[in-house]
Amino acid sequence: MDYLTYELRGEIALVGLNRPEKRNAISDAFIEELAVVIRRAEAEAKAAVIFGHGPHFCAGLDLAEHVKKTPFEGVHGSRRWHEVFGWIQKGKLPWFGALHGAVVGGGLELASSLHVRVADSTAFFALPEGQRGIFVGGGASVRSARLMGLARMTDMMLTGRSVDVDTAERWNLVQYVVGEGEALQTAIALAEKAASNAEISNYAIINALPRIQDMASDDGLFVESFIASFTATSPEAEERLQAFLQKKAGKVARPGEAG
Ligand code: 1HE
């Protein structure tokens, strides 16, 4: 692979963005490698972590490649990003992000398609599309806007505002903030927790929650009942519920206690 590294560590797939000399800028070939790696991770792992090699997570779209495209090629390119990032967001695996340095433009769009984002203190977030004369095309108008809210995203895009990790946490862009250099190990530890869940529960969490968010509340509640019943009557649920009742499964940990 030219743009990514892949490693299976136990049940966790580790995917590294590996074009550090271009700050992990995403070209068409990069997206195609990511498409292959997502499918490989789905076949081999129970959860996945994505991180960036070099000084930054990701500088977004490869601007050198973008300028060479016709308008119609641009539409297809954007639709391909949507498709591939959609395999992450509504696929088979829980995906965790370890973010550091620049998480900008398409890099923030990629991060927004993950399920849990851990950022270290060096991370910063921006949507510089306005300054480049372009628009978001990798899903930010849906995914990033839903995380941080329309007003904040509009401000970022109009003013070129760059936000630090503490602001990003307040704005819902990341769920965890850790010390410099600690994002990857934290993301792996969290991925290991998710990997120990029932697969059917993880699948429902990943696939049902974003869809139910898009539904009218009464429709969402109706769908929830079916998913609840389907998961609760699975053999995995029966085994896990019995294990708890027979005091063979752990209790819910208090915050800060090892789970
Ligand atoms: C790039 C890219 C890129 C760096 N495409 N080549 N994204 C941006 O507008 C972000 C543009 N990048 C930057 O602002 C900075 O590079 C960073 C803040 C991310 C990092 O700064 P730094 O000082 O560590 O690196 P650098 O010296 O700026 O970059 C190193 C090299 O990477 C340099 O090339 P070189 O040939 O001079 O060594 C840069 O030109 C190159 N490089 N970023 C191409 N993005 C689906 S729509 C999504 C729309 C977007 O993502 S728009 C946002 C694009």
UniProtKB/TrEMBL annotation:
<protein>
    <submittedName>
        <fullName>Enoyl-CoA hydratase</fullName>
    </submittedName>
</protein>
<dbReference type="InterPro" id="IPR029045">
    <property type="entry name" value="ClpP/crotonase-like_dom_sf"/>
</dbReference>
<dbReference type="InterPro" id="IPR014748">
    <property type="entry name" value="Enoyl-CoA_hydra_C"/>
</dbReference>
<keyword id="KW-0456">Lyase</keyword>
<dbReference type="InterPro" id="IPR017972">
    <property type="entry name" value="Cyt_P450_CS"/>
</dbReference>
<dbReference type="Pfam" id="PF00378">
    <property type="entry name" value="ECH_1"/>
</dbReference>
<comment type="similarity">
    <text>Belongs to the enoyl-CoA hydratase/isomerase family.</text>
</comment>
<dbReference type="InterPro" id="IPR001753">
    <property type="entry name" value="Enoyl-CoA_hydra/iso"/>
</dbReference>
